[in-house]
Write a structure and sequence with these properties.
The protein is an alpha/beta fold. It contains eleven helices and ten strands. The structure holds NADP nicotinamide-adenine-dinucleotide phosphate (NAP). NADP nicotinamide-adenine-dinucleotide phosphate is lined by residues 9, 11-15, 34, 38, 58-59, 81-85, 99, 124, 126, 163, 188, 190-191, 204, 206. Keywords: Oxidoreductase.
Length: 327
């Protein structure tokens, strides 16, 4: 009998790839979405009788996941991906920090109270709960030391705080409540890559790092951005390894591949997408050499033991899909 996996935030960029992979491997999947319209659209795209959805309109409302879990006693694995992904600087406490933290607490409580048959929880955390500065050496044991007050100082700080406090709450719950389920967390850096079921409207936040370069006209100066990337298909696969492979329980996995700068992204786009030749800036090829990484992900790579998709393929797949959707 196939196992059933519950995934929160099933409409997300990363989540849709996880759903696609789970279905291709024969799992049954129940996804939480915020509205019927979003659920129906996803169901149509997934196009499998092994996929169904439940509405969880508001991550934060008390008992948000209780009804969905009560209705699905067949679920044995929970993947929690839903969280606000934005650096918007309005009311950061209300819009970023509290939904992320309370949403995670709601998941933990719902599993314990309503679904004792669930044995594994995987949370999509982030590199920002490992470190938000990027200047000191970190590995799978590192935690961001950001405070609540610091979290409220900017949109980015709020995102970093939201992921850090949500993750800490989850490990604390495991420690103090000793539930029936184990926890593993996935910590990606910037996630690039194509959408699982084609581009529909706006791209998700991290892919706009790549797509916004298409707006730089020939001769335009290239703003400096340097970071680390991982392809979305590798992030999806890591979520499966995190519940399938013996020894994953209790582990934190850092998902990072190579470094990039805006200039290295442009160099890839200009060399590989002939359609854009002469329509976007070339910048100064070879400039903006990325600084070396400060992340030690040796333990994760050894555990996951699969080959990551390289930056060139990730960027070309992202841009080719994006420009064909704009036609
Ligand atoms: P995404 O496409 O924006 O997906 C976010 C998901 O969370 C969507 O399903 C969204 O629902 C849901 N969501 C957001 N705020 C919500 C709220 N207040 N109530 C209920 N649902 C809410 O982003 P993503 O890149 O796939 O991110 C997925 C997870 O990966 C997040 O936990 C994020 O922090 C983490 N992550 C992402 C990156 C990256 O570079 N992309 C890197 C590290 C970690 P709607 O579709 O209805 O908006």
């Amino acid at each position: 009998m196939a196992e059933t996996v519950f995934i929160s935030g099933a409409t997300g960029f990363i989540a849709q790839h996880i759903v696609k992979l789970l279905i291709s491997k024969g799992y049954h999947v129940v996804g939480s979405v915020r509205s019927t319209a979003k659920g129906e659209k996803l169901k149509q795209n997934v196009n499998s009788e092994n996929f169904s959805y439940e509405i969880v309109e508001d991550l934060e409302s008390v008992g948000a996941f209780d009804a969905a879990l009560k209705k699905h006693p067949e679920v044995t694995i929970f993947l929690h991906t839903a969280s606000p992904v934005t650096f918007a600087e309005n009311d950061v406490e209300k819009e970023i920090l509290l939904p992320a933290i309370n949403g995670t607490k709601n998941v933990l409580k719902a599993i314990k109270a309503q679904a004792p048959q669930i044995t594994k929880l995987v949370i999509t955390a982030s590199i920002v709960s490992v470190d938000s500065v990027g200047s000191k050496s970190v590995d799978e044991t590192s935690f961001n030391s950001i405070t609540w007050e610091e979290s409220k100082t900017s949109g980015f700080a709020a995102y970093a705080g939201s992921k850090t406090f949500a993750e800490k709450a989850a490990w604390e719950f495991i420690e103090t409540e000793k539930p029936n389920f184990t926890l593993s967390t996935i910590h990606p850096v910037y996630v690039f890559g194509p959408q699982a079921y084609g581009v529909d409207g706006e791209l998700n936040f991290s892919n706009t790092v790549v797509s916004k370069l298409l707006q730089l006209k020939p001769g335009a100066e290239v703003p400096v951005t340097i970071g680390s990337f991982i392809d979305v298909r590798d992030v999806a696969e890591s979520h499966l390894v995190a519940f399938e492979k013996e020894g994953a329980a209790g582990q934190r996995f850092i998902l990072t591949n190579s470094r990039f700068s805006n200039q290295t992204l442009l160099d890839i786009i200009n060399a590989n997408i002939p359609e854009l030749k002469g329509k976007i800036t070339e910048g100064i090829p070879g400039s903006q050499t990325p600084t070396p990484t400060t992340i030690n992900d040796k333990k994760t790579r050894e555990f996951l033991d699969f080959k990551y998709i390289d930056l060139k393929k990730s960027v070309v797949d992202t841009i080719e899909q994006y420009i064909s959707s704009q036609k």
